[in-house]
Design goal:
Structural class: alpha+beta
Order of helices and strands: HEEEEEEEEEEEEHHH
Largest sheet: 10 strands, antiparallel
Strand content: 25-35%
Shape: elongated
Helix content: 10-25%
Radius of gyration: 18 Å
Distance between the termini: 47 Å
Number of strands: 12
Length: 199
């Protein structure tokens, strides 16, 4: 019975991905910045397609903004992070797909000891699948999706200060309050960022 349910879940997701794509918002215009992996940096102009499907997220690249055509097209998961003057994004496994979470780049909304990343997929969800968990967090080299049904448990693995764990445990602490809580935590522990390569 359990095997049958898992198979049905897989088939529903497969059908869902093959017939739908999802947008975080409007397609972005070209923005100057750099894509990087350890030992590999690509500098130029990038356009991010926020239409997400089972293959992930497409990026178009130009070395020269005045060029009529893009120089290359690739999936954002091929790189670890993107930086520009006003935007930092990193790759996370976000939405459930037929063979695992779909890897896409999403923007950072809180910087500090614990970083918060956010994605907003319009029209996402079928029979409750993949709904509402919009935050990802990064601590040192650890990156993970902050699942809505386990967010308090996950937060307390990284936040042990009693002042903040009491807030997390409170009945009126909601998922949408996570960024503000982490902002306050980061202010208190501004000098304790893990010693790792910071982008």
């Amino acid at each position: 019975m359990r095997h049958t349910i898992c198979c049905l879940y897989f088939l529903v997701l497969l059908l869902f991905f093959n017939t739908h794509s999802y947008a975080q918002n409007k397609k972005q215009k070209y923005i100057f910045g750099k894509m990087y992996n350890p030992g590999d940096t690509l500098v130029g102009y990038f356009e991010f397609d926020t239409e997400i499907n089972s293959n992930g997220q497409t990026v178009w690249y130009k070395a020269d903004i005045n060029a009529k055509r893009h120089d290359k097209k690739f999936q954002s998961r091929e790189y670890e992070a993107f930086d520009s003057d006003s935007l930092h994004m990193e790759t996370f496994g976000t939405l459930p797909g037929p063979t695992g979470n779909v890897l896409i780049m999403i923007p950072r909304i809180v910087n500090g000891t614990i970083e918060v990343y956010y994605y907003n997929i319009s029209g996402w969800g079928i029979a409750g699948i993949g709904r509402a968990s919009n935050f990802c967090i990064k601590y040192g080299n650890t990156r993970l999706k902050l699942k809505k049904n386990k967010y308090k448990e996950i937060l307390k693995k990284y936040i042990t200060d009693e002042e903040f764990t009491n807030i997390i445990d409170a009945d009126n602490f909601e998922y949408k309050m996570v960024p503000e809580l982490i902002k306050a935590y980061n202010l208190k522990y501004a000098s304790s960022k893990p010693s790792v390569l910071s982008h």
